[in-house]
Amino acid sequence: MPLNNMELTDDFQVGKKMYDWAKDLFPVGRSITGQGVRDTLNYIKNKLPELKLHGIPTGEKVFDWEIPQEWVIRDAYVIDPQGNKILDYKKHNLHLMGYSEPVNCEMDLEELQQHLFSIESMPHAIPYVTSYYKSRWGFCIPHAEREKLVPGTYKVLIDSNFVNGSLDYGEVVIPGESKEEIYLSTYICHPSMANNELSGPVVTLALLQWIKSLPKRRYTYRAVFIPETIGAVAYLAKRGKELKQYMKAGFILTCVGDNLAYSFMPSRKGNTYADKIARFVYKDLGLPVKEYSFLQRGSDERQYCSPAYDLPVVSLMRSKYATFKEYHTSCDNLDFISPDGLYGGFAINRACLECIENNYLYEVTIPCEPKMDKRGLRSSIGGPRVIEPSMANMMNFLMYADGDSDLIDIAETIGVSFLEAKQLANLLEKHNLIRKI
Amino acid sequence: MPLNNMELTDDFQVGKKMYDWAKDLFPVGRSITGQGVRDTLNYIKNKLPELKLHGIPTGEKVFDWEIPQEWVIRDAYVIDPQGNKILDYKKHNLHLMGYSEPVNCEMDLEELQQHLFSIESMPHAIPYVTSYYKSRWGFCIPHAEREKLVPGTYKVLIDSNFVNGSLDYGEVVIPGESKEEIYLSTYICHPSMANNELSGPVVTLALLQWIKSLPKRRYTYRAVFIPETIGAVAYLAKRGKELKQYMKAGFILTCVGDNLAYSFMPSRKGNTYADKIARFVYKDLGLPVKEYSFLQRGSDERQYCSPAYDLPVVSLMRSKYATFKEYHTSCDNLDFISPDGLYGGFAINRACLECIENNYLYEVTIPCEPKMDKRGLRSSIGGPRVIEPSMANMMNFLMYADGDSDLIDIAETIGVSFLEAKQLANLLEKHNLIRKI
Amino acid sequence: MPLNNMELTDDFQVGKKMYDWAKDLFPVGRSITGQGVRDTLNYIKNKLPELKLHGIPTGEKVFDWEIPQEWVIRDAYVIDPQGNKILDYKKHNLHLMGYSEPVNCEMDLEELQQHLFSIESMPHAIPYVTSYYKSRWGFCIPHAEREKLVPGTYKVLIDSNFVNGSLDYGEVVIPGESKEEIYLSTYICHPSMANNELSGPVVTLALLQWIKSLPKRRYTYRAVFIPETIGAVAYLAKRGKELKQYMKAGFILTCVGDNLAYSFMPSRKGNTYADKIARFVYKDLGLPVKEYSFLQRGSDERQYCSPAYDLPVVSLMRSKYATFKEYHTSCDNLDFISPDGLYGGFAINRACLECIENNYLYEVTIPCEPKMDKRGLRSSIGGPRVIEPSMANMMNFLMYADGDSDLIDIAETIGVSFLEAKQLANLLEKHNLIRKI
Predict the structure, then answer these.
(1) β-pairing, A181-187 with A153-163?
(2) Which chains lie within 8 Å of chain A at 3 or more CB pairs, if any?
(3) Which member of B131, B268, B307 has the closest CB to residue C381?
(4) Which of A219, A410, B241, C41 is most deeply packed, by most CB within 10 A?
(5) Which candidate, A269, A265, A323, places its Cα nearest to that of A297?
(6) Out of A363, A382, A400, whose CB is closest to C132?
(7) Chain B residues with beta carbon closer than 8 angstroms to that of C403
(8) pLDDT in tens, B196-217
(9) Half-sphere exposure of residue C216, counting CA atoms within 13 Å on the CB side?
(10) pLDDT band at C352 (very low <50, low <70, confident <90, very high)
C-alpha cells in the first residue's frame, strides 16, 4: 500500500476499530425505514458528531417513488406441531421476510410452505428476502431444516404493523478549500449481514474520521448513509442539483470487508474523473482487480449514474455483491469479513482520495530546461552520459509539466509511481521550477 | 433473417416475383441510351405507376460529360467463308460491341481479327464490350469458336446509326413524415446480363413496392433507375444539391441476385450513417460478409461519393462485381441468379431500411430508475438477486436511453438484437418511461 | 532512395564532400565557447557565405542560464616520474577535461588519480569529460595507460585561463515563398569527435547548399550552428518567439554519420507535422528504423520541445547518441563515420524536406469523375474490367483529393509511393483536374 501514510500499527488498529463497529451494529434489525435505521445512524453519529440526521415523511413523492410507511416489528415466530418455537425473529432477524404484514393464526404445513423461502444449494443458510412494496408475509429457513418439517398444525405469529413515519438518513459535509466535492455514499438498510451491509458504513466512517484528521483539504467532502435504492432516489430528489454542480468524483462504499478480491464497478460513462483515479490507483498499487461491466451494476450507481444525473460515481469493492455465494444470506456474517479485509477496502478508497487531493495540474515556471546544478540538483560534470534515475525523473517531470497534464498523467508518462511523482513535484515546487495550476 | 416481417411463403413469392421480372427483361437490348432503356423503364413503370420517366437531350453538358447520341441497332452479323451467318446480334446481343458504328463490307480473317474480342480462359463465354465514346466497331465471340475461324473472305454487316435523342431514366419519390431522404440507385444499361444488371432493378422494384405498402414512413424515399456512370453524373448535375441536402443514407443496388456471398462496399468516408446501419445489420443478422475497400469500388459510388458530393452511399451486394468469373460475360445469365439469391439481396437491403425507420434516439422521461413494479413490470420480491433477463434488459435500456444513443447504440451496448431492442423500446414507450427524440 | 533526385555519381560526391569537411574540422579544439567554435563557424561560412555569425557576451542572462566566460587553452600535459610528457593536449585534445582551470604544480600519483578519468571497459579509449559550470581540472586517459602509471612525482601543467568574451553561433535564413519556416539545428561544441559532433554540421551544410540550389522554395529555411544546450537556450531566448510563430517543422542534425542504423527521436508531443513527415518518409523509403521514446531524448529537443515552446522538432539520426559504445570517447573518430554513412544521414533528412516542399493539400476541380478519355488519359473501351494500375491510381487520387487530405494522406490511402503520388498530382494538375489549396 504505497499510498498509505499511516504507521503499520495504525493500520491494524484501523482494521480492528472498523471490525468492532461492525460487531456492534450486526444484531440491529435494519430495514429501509424504522427504528433499526435510526439506531444505526445514532451509533455512527456517536463516532462522528458532525453527522446530520434527516427524515423524509411517509407519503412524500420522490420522482417516480413514494416514501413508504415505517415497518414496526416486535416479534415473530412459528410454533411447530410439537410445540417448539422455530424461525424466531429474536434469534435471527433474517428468519422474517422484511416488511412482513401481521399474522396470528394456525395453518397446516402445506399452507405454511407457501410462505417459506430457502436455498436448496446452501442447506444451512437463511436467505435474505424482503417485500417492501407489496403486502405479504414470509419466513426464511435453512433448507436442511425445511426438509425436517413434519405435517401438522403450525401456529404463526408476526407482531408487526405499519405506521406513518419517515425515511431516515445521515449526511455530513466536511468543508475544503474548494466548493468542488468528493462524494461518499453507503447504505444502512440490511439487517444482520456483514459484507453486503456493515462493511460499507464502517469503512465510510473510518474514511470520514481520516478526512477530518487531515491538516487541510483541497476538496469538500460530502457523505451519506442512506437506505439503498429508495434512499438514493430520495437524496437525488433533494440534492441532485447540487451533486451535479459540485461533484468531482464519487464513491459508493459497498462490499468492502472480505479479503478475497478487489473488484471495480466503473461509472456509466466509464471514463469520468472517478474512473481515471480508480484505474490509476489499482495500477499504481499493483493490485490485481476485476473490472466489471456497468451492465453488472447493482447498487446505487443505478440512481447516481442514471441518464438524468450521469454522475462520476464508481465503486472500489472487495468481492462484488451477487458474485459470492454468501451474498444475501446468513452466511454473509462476521466471519466473512475481517479487520484485514476491511482495511483493504479502507486503504484502496483512501488511496483514491489521497490521489485526488494531490492530483494537480503542473506547469513549468521557466522556459527551456532550468540550470539544475546551481540549485544543487545536478552533478556539474558532463561525461559519458550516466544520468542517475532521479535526475532523469526530475528532467522528465519538468518536460511534461505542460499545464495540461495532471500528476497522474505525468506519473504514467514518465513511468514513476504516484508517490515518486508527488515527491518530485514537491521538490521541484520547493525550488520554484513548477507551479500548480 | 430476424428483421424479416413477411411470412415465409411471402418471401418465396417475393423471390420468385423478382426472378420472373428478370426473365422478362433479360432479352432486352439495353445500352446507356436508346429503345432498350425505354422498354426497360416502361416495364418497371407498369409495376410501379408512380415512376416518372425523364430524358436529357443529346448534347447537353453534365459537368465534365456530354449526353451522347442514341445508338440505333437494327441488325448485325458476320457471314463466314462457308456462307454461315455467325455472331448474329439477333441471337445474342452480347455478340456486338456496344455502340458499334455501321459497317457493310468484306474483309479477310486477318483484318476481322482486329475487331474480335474473346476470353481465352473462358472459351465458351461471350465477353461484354462497349465503346461508348469513340467510334469503333467490333464483335464478341467465345474463344473456342474464334479458334475455329478459317482464312477467307468474311462479310460484315452492322446496320446501326446514331441519332439525336435522349438519355432516359426513371425516378420515384415516395413521401414520408420527414423531408430527409433514403436514396436507392440502380442501373439499367447492360444488355442480357443477370447479376450485374437485372438483379439491381428487380430488387429495387420489389423494395419500392414494399416501401409503398408500409402503413407509414418516417423518411422520404427517392429511387432512380439510371444508366451507370453517365446516368449518375447526369442525375447529380440535375439533383445533386437536393441529394446533398436531404440524404440520410443511400444504397446502390447492384449484384444482388446470386446466392454465393454477401459483400459490402462502404462509402468513401467509411463511417457515415449508411455505413453504420449496414455494418450493424450484417452483425445483427449474423451474416458472414466480405467488406471491400473503397479502393475496389466500381459502380455509381464513384460519382455519389466523389469529393464534391461525398454522400453517405453504400452497396450491400451478394457477389461483388468484378470478383466472379461470369462478370461481364454471357455466363452472367439467368442461371447465375436465383429466386433465393435475389431474396437474400432484397432482405439484407430491406433490413437496412427497417433498421433506419426504427432507429430513433431515446431518452428517459423520469430521473433515476422508475418504480417498475407499480406498472406490473417487475417482481416486488427482493431476494437472492435473480433478475430475469428481460427485466435486466429493460433496466439496461433505461440506463442507456440518454438522448445521445440511438436504438443501434443501445442494442450494441446492452447486448440484445435489434428486434429485442425494438420490443423493449415499444414496451417502455407504451409505459411513458422513454420518449423518442 | 526513391526521393533522391540527384544522380548516383552526385550522391557519392556529396558523401565524399561531407567526409572531407569532417576531416578538416576534426582536429579543431572546440568547446561551448572560444576560438575553436569561431574557427569552425568560419570554415562553414567559407562554404556558405550567407551564414551570419553572432556572439552573445559573457555574463548575459538567457532564461535560467548565464553566458559563461570563454575558456582559453594554450597547452596542457603531465610529466611522469621518468620525465616523459604524457596526456599531451596538443596530441589529442580529449586528454584535457573541457574548461579545466589553470594548474602548474607537482603532486604524487595518489593525488593525480583524483583528477584522472578513464573507462575500464574500453581500455584504449580516451573519455570525453567537461566541467563547464564548476571550476575543476582533470585529464582523460585510456584505462590501459592509467594502470601503467607508477608511483612518484608528477608535474602537471594546464596553461589555460578564462576571459570575458562571447558565446558564438552561426545562423542562416534562406527565404522561400512562404514565411513559414523549416528549421535545422546542429551543434559545434565538441572537440575531436566525429559522429556525435561533426556529422551534424557537415550534413547540415550539405543540406543548406542543396536548399540554396533549388529553383524555388515553398518554405523559408532557417538553420543554426550552435553549442549544444546553452546555445539552444540562448537562441530560444533571442528568437524563440519567431520560431514558435513560423516553424512548420524542425530537424536536429546529430549523429548522422555512421552506417550502422537509422534512428528516430520524435517530438515531445509525438504527433506534430514533423513527426508525420518523418514517419512517412521512413515508411516510404522502406528503411528499417528504431523509433525511440522521447524519454530517451538527449540533444537540443530538450530545449526546443520544452513546454514553454513545445516546437515540432524531431531528429532523424543514424546511430543515436548514447547508444553506441564509441559515444563520447576518442573512438568516435573519422573511422566511425564514412561518406556512405553521412550520405544516408543527408538523404533521409533531405527526403523529409522534399516531402514537405511537395506536401500540398489538393482538391478536385470538377464534380463527379472527370471524363478521362477526352483528355487522352483513359482507354475508351469498356470490357472485362482490367483497369491498368496507373489508371486506377489516377481515379483513386481524384477520389481522395477532397481538400482535407495532403499528398502524404493520399499516398497512404491509395497505396502508392510519395514519388508516384507526386507524379499523379503533377499529371492531374496539368490537366486542371485538381488544384493545390
Answers:
(1) unpaired
(2) B, C
(3) B131
(4) A410
(5) A265
(6) A382
(7) 307
(8) 999 999 999 999 999 999 999 9
(9) 4
(10) very high
Residues written for chain B: 437
Rounded to 5 degrees, what are φ and ψ at C17? Answer: -60, -45
Query: Could you identify the residue written with the cell 540550470?
Result: A371
Answer whether C307 sits within 8 Å of A373, measured CB to CB: no
3-class secondary-structure state, position A14: helix
Under DSSP, the state recorded for B327 is T
Interchain contact B160–C (C-beta under 8 A): no
Instruction: Supply A178's cell numbers.
Output: 474548494
* Whether C64 and A371 lie within 8 Å, measured CB to CB: yes
- C111 pLDDT exceeds 90? yes
Q: Do C364 and B308 touch (CB under 8 A)?
A: yes
Residue indicated by cell numbers 476491511: A342
Asked which of A116-130, B2-16, B242-256 is least confident by mean pLDDT, the reply is B2-16
C-alpha of A66 from chain center? 25
The answer to whether the CB of A191 falls within 8 A of the CB of A28 is: yes
What radius of gyration, in Å, describes the C-alpha atoms of chain C? 26
Cβ of C119 under 8 Å from any chain A Cβ?
A: yes
CA angle B356, B359, B362 (to 5 degrees): 160
Which is more confidently placed, C376 or B223?
A: B223
C401 close to A (CB below 8 A): no
| C-alpha cell read off for C210 | 542543396
Rounded distance between C-alpha atoms, residue B270 and residue B267, angstroms: 5
CB contact under 8 A, B385 and A298: yes
Q: What is this structure's pTM?
A: 0.93
Cell of A238: 433533494
Question: Could C127 and A380 be called an inter-chain contact, meaning their C-beta atoms sit closer than 8 Å?
Answer: no
Subunit partners of chain C (3 or more CB pairs within 8 A): A, B
The answer to whether the beta carbons of residues A182 and A249 sit under 8 Å apart is: yes
Tracing cell 485538381 back to the chain, one arrives at: C434
Ranges of residues in chain A with a pLDDT under 50 are 1-7, 384-386
Q: Which grid cell sits at A316?
A: 472500489
The C-alpha of C307 sits at a distance from chain A's nearest C-alpha, in angstroms, of: 5
* Closest-CA distance of chain C to residue B15, Å: 29
Q: Is C422 left (phi over 0), alpha (psi -120 to 50) or beta?
A: alpha
Contact C369 B233 (CB under 8 A): yes
CB pairs under 8 A between B and C: 89
Q: Which residues on chain C are in Cβ contact (under 8 Å) with B132?
A: 380, 382
**Interface residue B313 vs chain C (CB under 8 A):** no
B380 touches chain A (CB under 8 A): yes
| C-beta of residue C259 within 8 angstroms of C-beta of residue C344 | yes
Cell numbers at C13, concatenated: 560526391
- The span from the CA of A220 to the CA of A242, in Å, is 13
- pLDDT of C133: 87
- Percent of chain C scoring above 90 in pLDDT: 92
Q: How far is A405 from chain C (nearest CA, A)?
A: 11
pLDDT tens for residues A330-359?
Answer: 999 999 999 999 999 999 999 999 999 999
ipTM: 0.93
Distance CA B15, CA B427 (A): 33
Check residue C157 and give its pLDDT: 98
Take residue B128 and report the three cell numbers written for it.
Answer: 461484354
Degrees, nearest 5: CA angle C315-C317-C319:
140
Q: What is the pLDDT of residue A6?
A: 43
